[in-house]
Amino acid sequence: MASKRVPTSPYPDQKPGTSGLRKKVPVFRQPHYVQNFVQAIIDCIPDRKGATLVIGGDGRFFNEQVVQIALKIAAANGFGRVLVGQNGLLSTPAASCVIRKHGAVGGIVLSASHNPGGPEGDFGIKFNGSNGGPAPESVTEAIFARTKAIGDYRISDAPDLDLGRIGTSEIDGMTVEVIDPVADYAELMRTLFDFEALSKMFASGFRMRFDALSAVTGPYAKAILEGALGAAPGTVVNGEPKPDFGGHHPDPNPVHAHELFELMHGPDAPDFGAASDGDGDRNMIVAPGLFVTPSDSLAILAAHAHRAPGYAAGLAGVARSMPTSRAVDRVAAALKIEAFETPTGWKFFGNLLDAGRITLCGEESAGTGSNHVREKDGLWAVLLWLNILAATGKPAQELVRAHWAEFGRDYYTRHDYEEIDSGAANRLMDGLRAKIGSLPGTRIGGLTVKAADDFRYVDLVDGSVTEAQGVRVTFAEDARIVYRLSGTGTAGATLRVYIERYEAAPDRLELPVADVLGPVVAVARELADIEAITGRAEPSVVT
Ligand code: G6P
Ligand code: ZN
């Protein structure tokens, strides 16, 4: 077999977003589209000669074809070894774990996360660096620049590799190891959590449901929860990864994981409910009768993490993305550790984790993680919750209530206006930015604006500056509204409005969320003139 150079012309639209290049499958199926992007990534890995690369994805439609293409391009570009998950599968956190453990220069991870899959669904390609984390903006910018200048790519003409069989083979002198996608990850989890205590808890009748939403975490959850920890068979539902996620929208929130949500709010609720997304990095936690917001989950995990062996020494610090509620800040203050506020996107946690400034971090978008890998990690969050439940002996719902009683409660909701016109979305954000200076001190809908700004982040490790990350407005009544445009959509623009209000009085901890936040929601609509500018009277999704 030999490798060849194939002439190609650039596509203008291969700009990576919040989390890699994400487009509809038909876009990726255009001639040379995948090849161009993979070659552009590889051109931005200077030390590739003889190096190790990791390849894998969430198993969605088109996953396997792209794995085969990436393998052949890697072989033609001089890599020494590729580690690829069996059947082309690797959850995002497992890919991060494998990159770190095997000293790879990076990984090509195929996923459109929680977006629907299938021939008309979404697909994505992202690059993670040698620390196992999403490439920083400087690298994604370089990749984008390369895609605009590309004139040819190099590819081996070897036949497709059998990805079903674990073992070692070769393409044009490059070693290919097809690995068990679960093994390294499961071993890492064993070092962090008290598997013995968890096994005892399950043996004594603790019941849970884990809904894998027919996405990649099924095999991981089955191997760890049902296999290693002895949870009852059937604990993991929708556990077979499917190319179209069995028609599921693999986003673990009360809307898309409604079966789990309903079970947990019904008479047969088990002790604990959890779900994960398409590529396994997000999580949803539901206690019996009580949905735990991702922001609250992060705060509760931060308060109790020391109960798990991997975090027994305490936390160096914590971080949250800017639109995530301020609940974790209150825990950090009590623990007397640093709390950081970063822009949306997991990559912004990377430097803080690498520098040892934080141990735990999380986002309102259902991502929670720690320094064990450089991605958010759905199953890890579930195991940390379980470890805390085992260590405290408290039911999950009691743990949440005790947390509110101690720290107060940050009522929280997010309103998404999906697929709105991009021009209108930009006009709305520009309008808000223009108002920022005049807002402080104004009274609107019964609330008084305390401060308003457009979030700007200075990375304290490398000094890089990221501008215009969302408009935030805080109120004297301890409420906050944040507006930003999504960076992960594949059609039009999505406006996200994040609304929260803090309550600490003991008789105000269990009010209906809509009652507490209603007035703030009304102010959010008025302040940004949402209906007039977007033509939408109501958001498309409320979580
Ligand atoms: C991906 C990233 C997350 C980020 C989320 C935001 O899932 O991995 O770190 O929070 O996108 O998406 P958005 O659509 O709000 O830009
Ligand atoms: Zn994801």
UniProtKB/TrEMBL annotation:
- InterPro entries attached here? A-D-PHexomutase_a/b/a-I, A-D-PHexomutase_a/b/a-I/II/III, A-D-PHexomutase_a/b/a-II, A-D-PHexomutase_a/b/a-III, A-D-PHexomutase_C_sf, A-D-PHexomutase_CS, Alpha-D-phosphohexomutase_SF, PGM
Q: What class of enzyme is it?
A: isomerase
- Signal sequence coordinates: none
A Pfam short name: PGM1_C_vert_fung
Q: Which reaction does it catalyse?
A: alpha-D-glucose 1-phosphate = alpha-D-glucose 6-phosphate
Q: Which cofactor does it need?
A: Mg(2+)
* All copies of domain Alpha-D-phosphohexomutase alpha/beta/alpha, residue ranges: 14-151, 184-286, 296-407
Q: Which Gene Ontology molecular function entries are recorded, alphabetically?
A: magnesium ion binding; phosphoglucomutase activity
Q: Where is this region: Disordered?
A: 1-22
* PROSITE patterns according to UniProt: PGM_PMM
Enzyme nomenclature, EC number: 5.4.2.2
Gene3D superfamilies linked: Alpha-D-Glucose-1,6-Bisphosphate, subunit A, domain 3 (3.40.120.10), Alpha-D-phosphohexomutase, C-terminal domain (3.30.310.50)
- Report which residue ranges the record marks as coiled coil: none
Gene Ontology CC: cytosol
GO biological process assignments:
carbohydrate metabolic process
Q: Which UniProt keywords apply?
A: Isomerase, Magnesium, Metal-binding, Phosphoprotein
Q: Give the family this protein belongs to, as stated in its UniProt record.
A: Belongs to the phosphohexose mutase family.
Which NCBIfam families would you find in this protein's record?
A: PRK07564.1-1 (NF005737)
Recorded protein name is phosphoglucomutase (alpha-D-glucose-1,6-bisphosphate-dependent)
Q: What is the lineage of its organism?
A: Bacteria, Pseudomonadati, Pseudomonadota, Alphaproteobacteria, Hyphomicrobiales
